[in-house]
Design goal:
266 residues, alpha+beta, 8-stranded mixed β-sheet, 7 helices, 51% helix
Length: 266
């Protein structure tokens, strides 16, 4: 409207104004183009610098501020305090019990240490209880005849090996500081005349080791005659008063009487 009004009043001045208007628009378009060329020139002549600048800008935006880190540390500290410091008991009554105050850290540590010690003792007692219950469940023969062997381990040495039998527990072959399991308690066989130990250490290209112990009446506990009749299958003899049954004792007495009678005749 301004240019049209000028054309009607002063055509020559209006034409100059129109040219000036177009020139201003072309100048603005050229400025945008020049700006684009300048940015492109920066990327082509110093791409590494431009990339670093952009990465630095992104890192600055993503990096947490000192205030953020401080807030996180404070949150962790508060969590730690809540976790280790005792809380007010749910049944605590301020009117009857007084104002509740948490104990100091030294007292808390002392109580925690005492709790750990008592907990360790409880664990050991429970373990002992389990062992005792297992022992009570064992079959110790007629009238608990073999019960005295439950707390013993009898050993003997053959060449460089030491063989150890712990009735109702396990058996092992020892050499130096090493030990090879010959088996765990497997029970009695053949009417309480033999003890078995099975499931020992597996032999190279062979079965798991096992041991069968023949029980013989004797005046003291003594392990002897350890042999390996088959690969990784061991046998041994254990003399023990526990194997002396009434029938065996009566037979011994009869043999003694016969020997005395024969001596008198001579």
């Amino acid at each position: 409207q301004r240019i049209a009004a000028q054309w009607t009043t002063n055509p020559e001045a209006a034409g100059d104004a129109a040219v000036e208007e177009v020139s201003e628009e072309e100048s603005e378009e050229e400025s945008e183009e020049e700006r684009g060329q300048r940015i492109a020139a920066q990327w082509t002549t110093n791409a590494e610098s431009a990339g670093e600048t952009e990465m630095r800008d992104v890192s600055e935006d993503a990096a947490p501020s000192d205030d953020d880190e401080s807030s996180e540390d404070d949150a962790d500290l508060e969590l730690g305090d809540d976790e280790y410091m005792p809380q007010k008991p749910s049944d605590w009554d301020d009117e009857e019990d007084g104002v509740w105050e948490p104990p100091d850290e030294a007292r808390v540590e002392l109580v925690r240490k005492e709790f750990d010690e008592q907990n360790d003792k409880l664990t050991k007692l429970q373990s002992e209880q389990t062992k005792l219950e297992k022992k009570l469940a064992n079959d110790y023969g007629p009238e608990q005849a073999f019960l005295p062997l439950a707390t013993k381990c009898i050993a003997t040495k053959v060449n460089q090996y030491t063989y150890e039998v712990c009735p109702f527990e396990n058996a092992a072959q020892k050499e130096g500081g090493g030990s090879t399991q010959l088996g765990n308690w497997g029970g009695f066989t053949e009417g309480y005349s033999k003890m078995t130990f099975t499931g020992g250490a597996t032999c190279w290209n062979g079965p798991a080791r096992s041991l069968t112990v023949s029980l013989v009446c004797g005046h003291e506990d003594a392990l002897s005659k350890v042999e390996e009749p088959a690969k990784c299958e061991y046998t041994a003899q254990l003399k023990t008063p526990a194997a002396c049954t009434e029938a065996i004792i009566a037979d011994f007495k009869a043999q003694i009487v016969d020997m005395e009678g024969a001596h008198d005749e001579l």
